[in-house]
Write a structure and sequence with these properties.
Strand content: 15-25%
Number of strands: 12
Order of helices and strands: HEEEEHEHHEHHHEEEEEHEHHHH
Bound molecules: zinc ion
Oligomer: single chain
Distance between the termini: 81 Å
Radius of gyration: 23 Å
CATH topology of the largest domain: Metallo-beta-lactamase, Chain A
CATH superfamily of the largest domain: Ribonuclease Z/Hydroxyacylglutathione hydrolase-like
Shape: globular
Structural class: alpha/beta
CATH architecture of the largest domain: 4-Layer Sandwich
C-alpha cells in the first residue's frame, strides 16, 4: 500500500511537474526577438553573440554627411571571422580597425554581396589581411567584365580607389555557400536577380539574422540601374519566408522583416505608376513629377520625387516596361549605364 501510495505520489509529483512545465511552456517558448539598437553612424554593436553590425554613414539628401559606403556585419567563428561586404578601400581599412577591436581572430572570408564599388572595391585591402573574397558567380563575372572600366571611372572621383587595385573574387558560388562550426552558421544565398544579377545575402539561421546587401535597403537608397524590378519583387517574397528577427540592410538602419514589405510596396507602386504613365503617353520626367507615395516619406524621411535616385529608377522601370532592357546583359561593360551604380 505504502508502495502504491508512494508510486501515486511519484506519479502525481511527476504529473505535477509535467503540468507545471506545460503551464510554463508558453512563457519559455515565447519568441524572444533580438533587440535592435539605435545606432549612430560608424558605430559598432554586437547584435547577437559573436555577431557585430557596423552602421555606415549615408544620407539621401544631406550632402554634409559623408558617404561611408555599405553597412557591415561580421561573424566571429571559433577560429576565424567572416565579413559581409568589402566596401571601398578607405572604408575597408576603417572597418578592419573596428573588427580588431572586437576580436583577435583572423579574417578568413569576405562576401561581396554584389559587384558595385561600395561593396567590392575594397577586396584588395581584405586580401592583404589574408581573407578570401566570396561572391555569387554573376557578381564575380560582372566584376571581371565590368570591373576594370568601372574601376577607372571611380578612380577619377576617389583617391582611395586610385591608390588601390581591383581584386577579383577567389570563391564564387551558384545557389549557396555555407560556413559552419560549433559556434556559428552562415549561409550565403542567391535568391535571383534583385538589385543586380549577382546579389547574395548572408543568412544566420541560429540568430535569425539576414544580411541583404542592397537587395534590401532601409531608406531612399534603391539604386535600380542594374536591377530587374519584376524579379526583385518575387525574390523579396522568398526572403520573407525565412525565419528572421533582424534584417541588416546594405544601406540604412537595422530593421525587421517589415522592410521587405516596404521595399515590395515601393517596386510594385513604382511599376504601376510607370505602366500608367506609359499608357497615358507620358515621358519618364512627367511620370517622375507625378509620383505621389506619401507613405514613402514616412519610411525614408525623403519625398519620392526629391531624390535623383528615384528619377533614375523611373527611367529604368520605363525602359524595362518598354522592353528595352535585356536583364541578362545588365552590368556588362558595353551596356549603356553599365558601369555606374552603388
Ligand atoms: Zn549596389
Amino acid at each position: 500500500m505504502l508502495k502504491r501510495l508512494s508510486l501515486l505520489a511519484a506519479v502525481a509529483v511527476a504529473f505535477g511537474l509535467v503540468v507545471f512545465a506545460a503551464s510554463e511552456k508558453p512563457a519559455a517558448d515565447e519568441p524572444k526577438q533580438l533587440p535592435i539598437p539605435d545606432m549612430k553612424f560608424n558605430e559598432v554593436q554586437e547584435i547577437a553573440p559573436g555577431v557585430f553590425f557596423r552602421y555606415s554613414s549615408i544620407s539621401a539628401n544631406d550632402k554634409t554627411i559623408p558617404f561611408g559606403g555599405s553597412n557591415h556585419t561580421w561573424i566571429v567563428f571559433k577560429d576565424y571571422v567572416v565579413v559581409i561586404d568589402a566596401n571601398f578601400p578607405k572604408d575597408a581599412a576603417d572597418v578592419i580597425a573596428d573588427i580588431k577591436k572586437t576580436t583577435k581572430k583572423p579574417i578568413k572570408y569576405v562576401l561581396d554581396t554584389h559587384h558595385h564599388g561600395d561593396h567590392a572595391y575594397g577586396n584588395a585591402v581584405w586580401a592583404k589581411e589574408g581573407a578570401k573574397i566570396v561572391a555569387h558567380k554573376n557578381a564575380a563575372r560582372l566584376l571581371k567584365v565590368n570591373g576594370p572600366k568601372a574601376w577607372e571611372a571611380e578612380a577619377k572621383n576617389r583617391k582611395d580607389v586610385k591608390e588601390s587595385e581591383l581584386k577579383q573574387v577567389d570563391i564564387s558560388f551558384d545557389d549557396k555557400y555555407e560556413l559552419k562550426d560549433d559556434t556559428q552558421h552562415v549561409v550565403f544565398m542567391h535568391f535571383g536577380h534583385m538589385h543586380t544579377p549577382g546579389d547574395a545575402s548572408a543568412y544566420l539561421p541560429k540568430h535569425k539574422i539576414l544580411c541583404t546587401g542592397d537587395a534590401c535597403v532601409n531608406g531612399a537608397f534603391n539604386y535600380m540601374g542594374h536591377s530587374n524590378s519584376s524579379s526583385w519583387i518575387k525574390c523579396l517574397d522568398e526572403m520573407n519566408k525565412l525565419d528572421i528577427d533582424i534584417v541588416c540592410p546594405g544601406h540604412g538602419k537595422l530593421g525587421r522583416k517589415e522592410l521587405f514589405a516596404l521595399e515590395k510596396r515601393y517596386f510594385t507602386e513604382l511599376r504601376a505608376a510607370v505602366k500608367k504613365g506609359i499608357d497615358d503617353k507620358k515621358t519618364p520626367e512627367e511620370i517622375t513629377k507625378g509620383l505621389d507615395f506619401k507613405w514613402y516619406k514616412d519610411w525614408t524621411g525623403v519625398g519620392v520625387v526629391e531624390t535623383d535616385m528615384n528619377k533614375d529608377s523611373v527611367k529604368h522601370v520605363y525602359n524595362e516596361l518598354m522592353g528595352k532592357i535585356d536583364h541578362d546583359r545588365l552590368g556588362a561593360a558595353d551596356f549603356p549605364g553599365g558601369v555606374a551604380g552603388r
